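Could you help me review a protein record that somebody else here produced? This is what I was given.
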Amino acid sequence: MSQIHQEVTFSAPPGQIYRALIDSKDFAKVTGKPADIEPEEGGKFTCFGGYITGRHVELLPNKRIVQAWRSSSWPVGQYSIVSFELQADGLKTKLVFDQGGAPENEIAHLEEGWGKQYWEPLKKYLGG
């Protein structure tokens, strides 16, 4: 199993990015796709109209989100662990992202997908 590591800087404070990732309405605005997110530890989430599902393992407001995360195309019961670390950097936020436990044959698709489906729309939503 491979590990994905990405770092992205956003022109927004950590709290704004945190909310965009765990608030159903904000996430849907960012991605343009339906989302149903229970914003508490142990809470379930469904994003992109059910294509992505999982649970929040750890939520440290404005600092860290850890999720058991899966794509509907994966074998039943297979989850990866994703973490979003939010580090304030002046008026910006550095997001350090890691994903482990994804199927080997999905790594290239996922590496590209995080940029196209999450980081680019989030930058656009946050205005830069």
The mean pLDDT is 95. The first strand starts at residue 2 and ends at 10. Helices lie at 14-22, 24-31, 107-126. The longest helix spans residues 107-126.
